[in-house]
Amino acid sequence: MPTTVPAYGEEAAERLASMADVTAGDSALRRFLHGLPGVDAVGLQARAATLGTRSIKTTAKAYAIDLAISMIDLTTLEGADTPGKVRSLCAKGINPDPTDRTAPRVAAICVYGDMVATAKEALKDSGIHVAAVATAFPSGRAALSVKLADTREAVAAGADEIDMVIDRGAFLSGRYLEVFEEIRQVKAACVREDGSGTAAHLKVIFETGELQTYDNVRRASWLAMLAGADFIKTSTGKVAVNATPPVTLVLLEAVRDFRAAVGVRVGVKPAGGIRTSKDAIKYLVMVNETLGEEWLSPEWFRFGASSLLNDLLMQRQKLSTGRYSGPDYVTVD
Amino acid sequence: MPVFEYAPAPESRAVVDIAPSYGLFIDGEFTEAGDGKVFKTLSPSSEEVLSEVAQAGAEDVDRAVRAARKAFGTWSALPGAERAKYLFRIARIIQERSRELAVLESLDNGKPIRESRDADLPLVAAHFFYYAGWADKLAYAGYGPDPRPLGVAGQIIPWNFPLLMLAWKIAPALATGNTVVLKPAETTPLSALFFADICRQAGLPNGVVNIVTGDGSTGAELVAHPGIDKVAFTGSTEVGKAIARTVAGTKKKVTLELGGKAANIVFDDAPIDQAVEGIVGGIFFNQGHVCCAGSRLLVQESVQDELLDALKRRMSTLRVGDPLDKNTDIGAINSAEQLARIRALADAGEAEGAERWAPECELPSSGYWFAPTLFTGVTQAHRIAREEIFGPVLSVLTFRTPEEAVAKANNTPYGLSAGIWTEKGSRILWMANKLRAGVVWSNTFNKFDPASPFGGYKESGYGREGGRHGLEAYLAGAAEPTSEHRGHLPPEAGGKGEGERDR
Which superkingdom, per the lineage (chain B) (predicted)? Predict the structure, then answer.
């Protein structure tokens, strides 16, 4: 038996089922989540800040920049999105740097559900995934039936990954089991109906800026992982506070502890507000020193970002040519 | 090879210009020792000779004390606001030259640049800024309406935080109108000599600060000199006792900041990830060369396994190596002598039956190094639970109840610091009242601030440094405030300092 498995498949289901006693009812789940070790905010922030002082230079920097590019979920989530906009973003995802074809591809293109087919067609067999936000993104305020229909349509249109939002209202009012059940049902809705038995990967967004406390973030992380999340994700990018290093560190620690306790391995995606190479590298250091190098791949760590890519490309050009280029030497898409 | 190998990121040595030799700083001038004696100072990470420094003898110490005495009249007569200007100027120059000083400190001491840059130097500047602020407010400090300086202070500092300990000594002394003769540690004299240059840069009047370098004999001369009014010492308990004996029966006032064997106490409801960080920071910060280091981990038995697993995992990520590399977490042991002492005590730990563990880590071939080490199965009877190791060695003990934790934590001749890790606020307050330690940290460790008094109980010494309390050590007749005066003070300022109760 492998020591750890991803969060899908029979083995994972069995391992998650071994935790059934803590998810058997509202009070059991509450007791479990409230029994998790607390998070001391000052200490957490100090640790994240210290990791942020790591100095990543030369070869390490080149490695980190390429790795970061390959981990990007290149995102457009605007009311003004059009097929044209999505197609040009896909083109950029395939060839991020028009002057240097050695630049790696991004991990996924992240769009609203109605743009999945367009993105899928534009990406063809590039290997880049299409991620769709679902479940009444970004607020999560809709009936469960609507959220499930939203998910099914995106999966049917070809989405490889579903980025769902949790119901923060239910979470904050302590209805943890409701949030748990909702994630489980969305996970079930991710199964493709083409008879292949495969499923879109599920990323669960907490909107940590609305959960406010680190204790809440840790509880939400365990809740989502118990419910079968493939990835846990900080934010929608649509509220005032999005991914921060301390919040992401809580997610990473939760993933580390969950693997040790349950034997199921989950990915992490900070999203929103990560705009510079310097920031991205700090996150990679944090992954490296919290979860280890096993997580340093797009399969297990992603950045939800749009403007980050251009900064990474400019830094990449600087490393290869020795000169800074400028924003006119990367594409605006 | 790891996938994400951090490339070397060395801080440039070019920012610091170390002269091949240095004299003593007396009366505003660098001069040779009377008998021309010198000694070498090494970089402990490479054993490279950094410079040659004068060895002050009795005659040199006498010259320095006379210079300080001569300067005392004018300096103490200056209005506090004028003295403050010099201190503010020194603080600003330290900030401006902080990169240079950080590199120098890491070279001479062996500590990682991340710590000298992010901890030592900011705290040094902060200490001067803080006491600069007091210089013209001494009448409101709770030591009477017109507190007077003592005169000439003889100050002896250790090698673990050379420049920071200098700041702790010099800043309050000057703010209160004293003049000083300071002796830096034998293995780390350079930053004090650079500080002498800063005094000149700041235009500090000659003789207000004098620096005499040398070994223990220089310190003994200074302590015994009849011309000093005050001895301030930070260092080992053994030397501290010798100093107390020397000055007994004289008019000299003494403050001693000595060793420690602090307990870092982790309850089963602690924020575990942060507790692990606090334990690591508590004992491995500055290679464990910290008098208030959390060298005894007291962990509640019910979370022992979980905590030790997490601690070992975290220790495996510590990066030991070149102090000037910005990614180094643990630098070099300060001297061959200290390394030998750490080794001897660690070997004693093993011989006495404790279980030794250290993460795999490759140590450089030259210089003095010791891997971060953990001992489990330690009891109160083991030497490693009783003696100060002053190195990166953690002794793990367990307890069952809060009462037992307090009993074990206090069961030491020392009493400098303690740490409590629990999410329960009432327990923190209960513990803090029971622990006989000068500093009690809760859910953190090794946090310093110039506004916070620091000092020990029992064999950890007496007197307080830092904060309003730190002024008292440099003021004459520091008695209860007069009743007339008390009306202007916050209620707590009327009583003696917190740490005084148990003396």
Answer: Bacteria
